[in-house]
Amino acid sequence: MRKPDVRAGTRRSPLAVKQTQLIRDALQAAWGRLDIVLTRFNTLGDRTLGALVPPPGGKGLFTAALEDALLGGEIDLAVHSLKDLPTDSSPGLMIGAVHKRTSAGDVLIGHKASALDALPAGAAVGTSSPRRAAQLKHARRDLVIQPVRGNVGTRISMMERGEVDAVVLAAAGLERLGVKHAGAAALPSNVMLPAPGQGALAIQCRVDDHRMRKLLSPINCAATCAEVMAERSFMRALGGGCAAPMAALGTAFAGGSIELQGLVCDVEGTQMIRVTDTGRNPIDLGRRLAEESVARGAGDLIENA
Fold first, then answer.
1. Which of 101, 83, 20, 78 is nearest to 203 (CA)?
2. Of 54, 66, 58, nearest to 90 (Cα)?
3. What is residue 241's predicted lDDT score, i.e. its pLDDT?
4. Contact yes or no for 36/6 (Cβ under 8 A)
5. What is the mean pLDDT of each run of 10 residues along the chain (305 residues)?
6. Can you give the pLDDT at residue 89?
7. Are the CB atoms for 258 and 249 separated by under 8 Å?
8. 84 in active site
9. Residue 61: how many CA atoms within 13 Å on its side-chain side?
10. Whole-angstrom Cα distance, residue 173 to residue 234?
11. CA angle 289, 290, 291 (to 5 degrees)
12. Starting at the edge strand that comes first in sequence, how are the strands of the sheet with 201-206 ordered?
């Protein structure tokens, strides 16, 4: 049997498979005939997705199995939602490309109201993200945050069955799956700032695999890369996957400048530090905003969390 040109690794979830198919299609559009085979992996994060309390392991829950397969030579590339990928690269691996980002924000889907301010008093909103929960509480102190886990379809089904009044999901996942819901409304960034890297796809490969690095080069989006580098620099400077809820959103402009918004808050959303600045070097911009956040008290919030 002929060996495929590229062996692409993905998680088994419908969204992860769809995202890997998007990267497959982009590679084939750039290079013509390429035999790309998808290999599905059942990560620890996927195996425990139904648990209300996730096991220890942080962001690596959804990436470790793919990284092990890359390092072991089972696959040639792995496709990740960039927000799931730790800020420090595993030895021997690198992000070979960041695909053009779709929507970075979050969406509220409800059956009683599709806008946050239209939800009834004391409404239950489903999310297991400390970042989303804290910002929801900051916007509406009366809301009851209910942990929900599972894939996109599972969370929407919980809302439709009345287990919660609304759920918050990433807009990018809904778009890639083609999910359109009558009760959906985008949450603006002044209400819900996204996670660093949200909406972007990272394609990981081995550092010494120069053929794969060349194949990935045409599908790298320079603007998206600059945005997420700034966001991840902000997160890294604050301690990587720190326990305090944090968020960041970069916006690249023609000419090379980047605007970065950053946020750190306590888990109840009562203390919130927002910072914004522009620059041309994404790494320096992220570090600078992190330092400003710490100077304004973010260090205490992180330590307390």
1. 78
2. 66
3. 61
4. yes
5. 87 94 97 94 61 49 88 96 90 97 95 85 95 97 94 93 95 95 93 97 98 98 98 91 85 96 95 97 98 94 84
6. 85
7. no
8. yes
9. 15
10. 24
11. 90
12. 36-41, 6-11, 77-81, 201-206, 93-99
Tokens matching residue 23: 């990267």
Q: Which of 54, 78, 89, 43 is nearest to 232 (CA)?
A: 89
pLDDT (0 to 100) of residue 242? 62
Q: Which of 46, 76, 84, 106 is catalytic?
A: 84
Please measure the distance between the N-terminal and C-terminal CA atoms of the chain and give it in whole angstroms: 54
Residue type, position 290, single letter: A
Predicted pLDDT of residue 52: 47
Q: Which of 11, 35, 140 is nearest to 85 (CA)?
A: 11
Give the span between the Cα atoms of 136 and 196, in whole angstroms.
18
Around 270, how many Cα atoms within 13 Å sit in the side-chain half-sphere?
2
Sheet arrangement for strand 258-265: 246-252, 258-265, 272-279
Q: How many CB atoms lie within 10 A of CB 14?
A: 14
Q: What is d(CA 289, CA 84) in angstroms, rounded to the nearest whole number?
A: 22
Residue 232 CA to residue 214 CA, distance in Å, equals: 24
